[in-house]
Amino acid sequence: MSRLPGVEPPEQVVCHVDIDCFYAACERLREPQLEDEPIVVGMGYESGETHGAVATASYEAREYGVESAMPISEALDRLPRRGEANDAEGTGFYRPVDMEFYESVSDDVREVLHSAAETVRIVSIDEAYLDLDGISWTDAGTFGRSLKRDIETAAGVRASVGIAPDMTTAKLASEADKPDGLVVVDPDEVRSFLASIAVESLHGVGPVTAEALHDMGYDTAGEIAAADASVFVEAFGERGRDLHAQARGEDERTVEPRGRPKSLSSESAFVESTTDRTRKHEKIETLAMDVTERAAAKDALYKTIGIKVVQPPFDVHTRSRSLSGPIDDPELTETIARELLAEFEDEPVRKLGVRLSNLSFDEREQATIAEWERDDARVTEPFEQRQYGRKSERRQTELSRFE
């Protein structure tokens, strides 16, 4: 991007992370044999049925014309279920949405993101922005490769990453080389990068706006950027001014977290699965210390203490205990976490986590330990009482967004 003499390039280095076909990737975690196979994950869909809508389709399924928001019945016309045709070629696997499991995997990704950058803006279950304060453009590519590797190691899913001087360009960069892509757009390359971007890819441009732009003779961001902003203001109002600025890479937004966290967690995997009680207890102690320190740094109290246990190959179990009021007590947190772990002391474990939820940022008056001991409500109960390797008994039938 050309700049006037004396004008400094933007100081921001923004990273956009987008997990590729997230729901399908999660299903492959549980069923590795689905790797490279067409997968359709349905919202409001049950196994063997034809109702519901496509929440996401793997890239292999998209080759058959299956798209997000498409009715399952139409998807089945284009890609029959495996087993319903004599020839496996041209058939695919259909799975119902399992949000509990997907959120568990998303938690693993978020742990990596929060470890990689101090400021993280979570956009959705599979998408986030990072402010790479302190990372130079020379090191941006190295950072991106390391981040992708850490996400795959910790969560078992692949991410596409875009790094650029602004949030809009970073998002477009993450989409430019999917799947499993990494695109770094230096400040001086923003305009040239955006030049060939189709108008449909710009934020806020739906089918109606895209058709209007094509009718006006604008097919790419570069063509919009070269025109006068007044053309688009006249056609679309103030939204047109934003569209013109976006096409020129002019986005002054900064990466800021959205609201306060609903929970805090700390997780860590063993090099190999273990049944050693001592190693498990040591891990729980370290995780409890880490997550309570983070809660204290955020001035957060917590009412629910939970653990996450991952057993091979990828069976996820969660257990929790809720107290009668919010606390800030690392010692009690460790004690409860150890008690919850007792159920799995002799079981093989590949990963452990400690989670604090029901957070409070306003209540600073804590009840005493004696009050907890008098509280009959202090009973162990799973907050997600299920094993993710089994069929979920409860499916979310409405999603706020499609992938």
- Tell me the number of helical segments per DSSP (H or I, 4 or more residues long): 14
In the CATH hierarchy, what is the superfamily of one domain?
A: DNA polymerase, Y-family, little finger domain
Classify the helix fraction into a percent range.
25-40%
Number of strands: 13
Portion in beta strands: 15-25%
Q: Which CATH first-tier class of one domain would you pick?
A: Alpha Beta
Q: Cα-atom Rg, whole angstroms?
A: 24 Å
Biggest sheet layout:
5 strands, mixed
Order of helices and strands: EHEEHHEHEEHEHEHHHHHEHEEHEHE
Shape: globular
Strand order of the largest sheet: 5-6-1-7-8
Q: Architecture of one domain, CATH level 2?
A: 2-Layer Sandwich
Distance between the termini: 32 Å
CATH-defined fold name of one domain: Dna Ligase, domain 1
Structure description:
- The chain is built from 14 helices and 13 strands.
- Among the domains are: 22-99, MutS, DNA mismatch repair protein, domain I (3-Layer(aba) Sandwich), CATH 3.40.1170; 195-247, Orthogonal Bundle (DNA polymerase, domain 1); 263-381, 2-Layer Sandwich (Dna Ligase, domain 1).
- The chain is of the alpha+beta class.
- The strands form 3 sheets. It has a 5-stranded mixed sheet with strand order 5-6-1-7-8. A 5-stranded antiparallel sheet has the order 9-12-10-11-13, sandwiched between helices. A 3-stranded mixed sheet has the order 3-2-4, with helices on both faces.
- Helix 6 (167-175) links the parallel strand 7 and strand 8.
- The protein is globular and about 70 Å long.
